[in-house]
Design a protein that fits this description.
The protein has about 375 residues and is α+β, with helices and mostly antiparallel strands. The chain contains 17 helices and eleven strands. The structure holds cobalamin and iron/sulfur cluster (2 copies). The site of one iron/sulfur cluster has 13 residues, from helix 8 and helix 10.
Length: about 375
Amino acid sequence: MPPADQYWSELRSLALESGLHAVAVTSAEPLQRAREQIEDRLARELVNGMQFTFRNPLRSTTPTASVEGARSIIVAARSYDLRDVSDTGEPSKYPAKVARYVWHDHNAELKKSLEVVKKKLKSDGHRAVVFADDNSVVDREVAWRSGLGWFGKNANILLPGAGSYFVLGCIVTTADLPVGSPLDDGCGPCVRCLSSCPTEAIVSPGVIDANRCLSWLLQKPGVFPREHREALADRIYGCDECQSTCPPTQRSVVAGEVPVTLTSRHRRHLDALWMLEVTDVELLDACDPWYIHERNPLWLRRNALVILGNIGDPSDAEVRRVLDSMLRSAEAVLRSHAVWACAKLGLTDMLTIVDADPDEMVQNELAHLPTCRDDL
Ligand code: B12
Ligand code: SF4
Ligand code: SF4
């Protein structure tokens, strides 16, 4: 076996050749700080029903629970800073936009690259398992501990000179590799992300309140909180605001180097009206290249109704027609969000259809109608 430094140098070169943008190593020691933070967020009720790494904190912060005898964790970042995905394709009157990381399944690409390195580790007699966006490891904590990047106040990991438009993943392995150490803070006095968050969800540096974070609210099942619907604007899935306003991320130099074969099916948005009219199969097919957790057309349509209330044109006959059909939907959650959209657009005359609706959710919306949009 070559010395640890030389072996890591070989693995590192292989990783970079395989499409990863940066790699580093940390030990497989428990992620004590992350465990404490998770417990603290749960105790402070900042988690709002999220499962992920919060469901079993002990497991997600104990690398050796996933790989017995693990000694090291190879942490990797892959850029998702695609600039080529066009806004063209079908012309859209009411574009419902997804966040940048959703445009393509970058986690699948990241895993493919990590698999190449894993294969090498295994052929050399080590145990090795790949994880990326998996509940077994807290990706950002291992990335921070390895020195891959610093923890931004927006809670993202930023790579020096390259910002935060990166997905993160790792290989937990029994190989002994030379570990890195955390970088110095790179944010300095900047607080742009805190002030740019549309819902003030960054409650202190590095701490996100999931009760307010649009990224979580867009995927959470059920009623979209009324107090955050206007802030949602035209987002259908994911939110980029705390990153797109971040100076080091804006200055990113990775642009144009993301190895992805783009097709005409890659896009930044779908039309909100279209989403409310097509079948589930058509909707899911259009979302196919996107990275969306538990693809449920119901929540995507709920989000599309909020968008329609925010950007729809009430004088457009198509808008009226689609809202009319949504007020008659078999799904109470769609009827109730259609009620809100009608009121935002000043179309309260349409609400007679639901006057006698037996559903509590719909009656609750009728009892709390918003005022019409200021710009109408
Ligand atoms: C749950 C989750 C979410 C939740 C909660 C986010 C959160 N901040 O916890 C929601 C749905 C809101 C979410 C949103 C997003 N997510 Co997310 N998410 C995850 C997931 C599944 C687990 C995260 C986790 O365990 N959090 C636990 C909490 C306790 O960690 P934390 O909030 O980061 O807290 C740390 C800091 O506070 C730090 N810390 C301690 N003291 C201090 C002090 C200071 C000053 C600072 C700055 C930090 C700091 O220590 C804590 C523990 O590590 C990971 C994948 C994974 N398996 O790890 C992806 C992941 C974190 N998400 C990711 C992405 C891309 C996003 C979005 C950008 C997507 C989008 N565009 O909408 C947003 C960003 C929102 C934000 N500002 O954080 C990437 C992050 C990549 C990166 N470069 O950092 C990950 C790693 C997925 C992946 N494999 O690439 N996400
Ligand atoms: S993802 Fe959006 S809502 Fe969540 S903290 Fe960042 S800016 Fe705020
Ligand atoms: S916006 Fe400023 S404070 Fe926030 S993560 Fe970026 S550099 Fe740090």
